[in-house]
Task: inverse folding
């Protein structure tokens, strides 16, 4: 199989380039893209990427594989390789540090902006704060986000305004706290989001939904936030 | 000190997993100038993989639940070499630690009463007199670790913790008095090497499952904290005690939680027989993990394994129905479909015992202070060094950890270490500064690697190390073959001296990090091997074919591995809990 991989090392390359490498894939095994990266690195130790859990829960190895963002560790070759070729690029739209490693600061900054922590003005009880199964169910599809950035870096609105548009991942998290019955700062949270950019730059392109490796739906969450913002202004 | 930049803190926490972040939060909130150093962005730490839950007597599933029952289960689970003062502390303050997590925002699953949902896990009873299966593991579906780690990160953001993300700790810096005064670290993004100076250094670096070929552990679980401590001359405790989890996905190593069996799943052999009924008539599939893992290996050895090579068994879940599986075990469905190509709604999952958890580690007291041994075998606190989480051995897990007890260990002892450090610093902790030569010593290993000109690639040596450990120090162990394994480890040690770092560039050089990690894997592996060969009995996870019985007369003890001599000694187990009677050793049956 031909792997074409994005290479850039600021200490020796003036510009990034694509390197083509032929990789022997063992017969009868459906490797994951991460396994292929390991094979490449065993040959050339300078090939650089992030990885940790290797089972799709830590969100380290978000990449662009044959044009689509996803996690290398849970993307089988059978699903992604076309015509015996695999093109590997860093997540689009963020500055590249080296090879497939991008600078995630912008992405994390947007996450921080939405105050991603529970706020509750009442003193905590001696036990847990009670929450009904129905209230808790509202968090399903939200709390599972692994901050892999596959969605935000697939979003044209985020590419153009990574400093002002929170992006799908951050907004999904914003809604996670708006939806939590234990959180009491709904009004402040909505006030913080109420400007032309933070939420309203979402154009409903839905790239986020199609790439999210956890099957989450940021567009839907953004819709809920819009609804809450509208209601607030009426 | 030449051009080396120095960063100055009162406390540094090495590790941004559950233990490290709980410690960092405690320290930051109490105003101690703290930095949390982590080689990956905090939420990418291995705690994120924990599935089943956090075990604690919060009396939700059973209003009469009692932390003393949890304590009893834990002592029994440990095969009686867990320290009872530490277990008492963990089980009694546990509920407070779990409620704190809820207040921090952890989205636990809920009961109709609005309380935290608890599921049954292995080894849980209602005390010494009532073996009824308890349900004591607090869960957020089967993504408890993810939910816990993100909640802790969020709590730290709220608290304003300073993080040095994607920084790699290389080696401890010790002053002339032998106190730990910080660490040499590399900022991975720029490649800059820095001396991070601190009055208190906390090792919260997690486990080292990657010493084995087949493991449920993340690729980053390379025992760095253990390696750093051993290289600095500090001992390891109970390093022979490795938990093999019964249900790693065959071929991939990824875990499917014990919660599967808690929710009613069970194991079957090639004849479709639910074989655990034979080995543990009372608890069946929810016996201690060591017991279940050994039973599985015996089934395979006796020819009742599944698949063309008859080398695994099956975990059956389909009888639970799609709805339950979707609600309670959604993550498992995903993992099984991805890594086993099996849809548990329809077919069983192929599973095999897989290296999972390091019960041993850096010995500490309840306050997280690291302990070393004096020449005459007395405990001595190491000034400036602390440990918590999987890297530490307090010891609450003894020879076998109960499911769900690690997450509790993280938050309870992360907090305890923070409290202890706060107090020690307030009492006026000071150290002599490290001299230039102290710092040079700590830099020695890195400098050698950076100046290598030829030699072997680290990946090849790593493969060899993992194979050796898998083959000679696995579920069943035997003296002669361990001797052979030790010899092979010696040879691997020689090869390690000759590792060559081809790529010397600075920015994000993961080859350099991997080469440094390999040393830690090796130190941890040798400690494991020497301890396993030295403990001549079978206890908990340590099962020997040549010493098949538990030997309380000689081995109701911790083992202590001294890295300076590579020898093993014994340390007393604590049988003096403060508020309850000690649980005396009994035959352990399930
Ligand atoms: C698949 C799986 C499922 C599990 N499920 C459960 C469960 O349901 N319940 C339960 O109780 N337990 C469970 N466990 C066990 C439990 O998850 C771990 O024991 C626990 O999460 C370890 O936490 P920790 O904070 O000690 O370390 P980790 O979470 O592993 O964190 C270690 C930290 O140290 C940092 N680090 C390491 N080395 C360096 C270095 N050299 N420089 C800088 N930083 C460094 C890493 O970046 C990381 O932040 C499970 C384990 C596995 C493998
Ligand atoms: S929403 Fe999905 S794609 Fe976006 S960061 Fe979270 S897990 Fe990744």
Result:
């Amino acid at each position: 199989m031909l792997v074409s991989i994005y290479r850039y090392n600021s200490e020796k390359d003036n510009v990034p380039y694509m390197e083509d490498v032929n990789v022997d894939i063992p017969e009868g095994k459906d490797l994951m893209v991460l396994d292929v990266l390991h094979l490449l690195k065993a040959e050339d130790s300078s090939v650089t990427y992030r990885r940790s859990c290797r089972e799709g829960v830590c969100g380290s190895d978000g990449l662009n594989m044959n044009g689509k963002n996803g996690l290398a560790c849970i993307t089988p070759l059978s699903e992604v390789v076309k015509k015996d070729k695999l093109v590997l690029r860093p997540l689009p739209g963020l500055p590249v540090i080296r090879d497939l490693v991008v600078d995630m600061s912008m992405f994390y900054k947007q996450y921080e902006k939405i105050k991603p922590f529970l706020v509750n003005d009442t003193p905590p009880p001696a036990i847990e704060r009670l929450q009904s199964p129905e209230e808790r169910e509202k968090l399903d599809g939200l709390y599972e986000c692994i901050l892999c950035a596959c969605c935000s870096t697939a979003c044209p609105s985020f590419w153009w305004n990574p400093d002002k548009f929170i992006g799908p991942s951050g907004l999904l998290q914003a809604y996670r706290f708006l939806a939590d019955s234990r959180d009491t700062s709904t009004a402040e949270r909505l006030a913080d989001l109420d400007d032309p950019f933070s939420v309203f730059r979402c154009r409903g392109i839905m790239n986020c939904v199609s790439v999210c490796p956890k099957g989450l739906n940021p567009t839907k969450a953004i819709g809920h936030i819009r609804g809450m913002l509208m209601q607030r202004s009426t | 000190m030449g051009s080396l930049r120095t960063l100055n803190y009162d406390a540094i926490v090495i590790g941004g997993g559950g233990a490290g972040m709980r410690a960092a939060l405690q320290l930051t909130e109490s105003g101690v100038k703290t930095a949390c150093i982590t080689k990956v962005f905090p939420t990418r730490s291995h705690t994120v993989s924990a599935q089943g839950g956090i075990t604690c007597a919060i009396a939700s599933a059973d209003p009469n639940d009692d932390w003393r029952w949890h304590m009893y289960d834990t002592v029994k689970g440990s095969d009686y070499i867990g320290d009872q003062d530490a277990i008492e502390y963990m089980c009694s303050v546990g509920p407070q630690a779990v409620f704190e997590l809820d207040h921090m925002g952890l989205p636990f699953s809920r009961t109709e009463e609005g309380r935290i949902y608890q599921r049954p896990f292995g080894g849980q009873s209602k005390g010494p007199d009532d073996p009824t299966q308890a349900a004591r593991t607090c869960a957020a579906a089967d993504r408890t670790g993810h939910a816990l780690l993100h909640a802790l990160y969020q709590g730290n953001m709220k608290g304003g913790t300073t993080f040095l993300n994607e920084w790699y700790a290389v080696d401890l810096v010790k002053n002339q008095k032998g106190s730990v005064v910080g660490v040499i670290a590399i900022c991975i993004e720029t490649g800059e090497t820095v001396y991070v100076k601190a009055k208190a250094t906390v090792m919260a670096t997690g486990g080292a499952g990657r010493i084995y070929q087949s493991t449920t552990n993340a690729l980053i679980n390379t025992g760095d904290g253990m390696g750093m401590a051993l290289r600095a001359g500090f001992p390891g405790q109970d390093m022979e005690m490795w938990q093999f989890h019964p249900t790693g996905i065959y071929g991939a190593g990824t875990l499917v939680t014990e919660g599967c069996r808690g929710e009613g799943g069970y194991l079957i052999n090639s004849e479709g027989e639910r074989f655990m009924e034979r080995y543990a008539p009372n608890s069946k599939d929810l016996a201690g993990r060591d017991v279940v893992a050994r039973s599985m290996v015996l089934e395979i050895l006796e020819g009742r394994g599944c698949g063309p090579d008859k080398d695994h068994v099956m975990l059956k879940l389909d009888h639970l129905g799609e709805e339950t599986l979707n609600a309670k075990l959604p993550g498992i469905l995903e993992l099984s479909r991805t890594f086993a190509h099996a849809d548990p709604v329809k077919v069983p999952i192929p599973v095999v015992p897989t290296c999972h958890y390091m019960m041993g580690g850096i010995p500490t007291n309840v306050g997280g202070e690291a302990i070393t041994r004096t020449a005459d075998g007395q405990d001595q606190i190491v000034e400036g060094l602390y440990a918590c989480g999987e890297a530490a051995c307090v010891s609450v897990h003894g020879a076998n950890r109960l499911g769900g007890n690690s997450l509790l260990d993280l938050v309870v002892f992360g907090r305890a270490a923070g409290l202890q450090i706060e107090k020690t610093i307030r009492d006026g902790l000071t150290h002599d500064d490290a001299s230039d030569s102290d710092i040079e010593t700590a830099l020695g290993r890195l400098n050698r690697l950076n100046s290598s000109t030829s030699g072997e690639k680290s990946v090849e040596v790593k493969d060899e190390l993992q194979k050796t450990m898998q083959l000679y120090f696995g579920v069943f162990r035997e003296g002669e073959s361990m001797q052979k394994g030790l010899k092979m480890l010696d040879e691997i040690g020689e090869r390690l001296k000759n590792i060559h770092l081809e790529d010397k560039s600075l920015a994000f050089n993961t080859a350099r990090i991997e080469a440094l990690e390999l040393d830690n894997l090796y130190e941890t592996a040798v400690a494991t091997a020497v301890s396993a060969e030295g403990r001549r009995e079978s206890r908990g996870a340590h099962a020997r074919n040549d010493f098949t019985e538990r030997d309380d007369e000689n081995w109701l003890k911790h083992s202590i591995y001294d890295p300076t001599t590579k020898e093993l000694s014994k340390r007393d187990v604590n049988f003096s809990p403060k508020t309850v009677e000690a649980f005396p050793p009994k035959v352990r049956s399930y």
Observations:
- The two ends of chain B are 59 Å apart (CA to CA).
- Chain B touches chain A through 59 residues (CB under 8 Å).
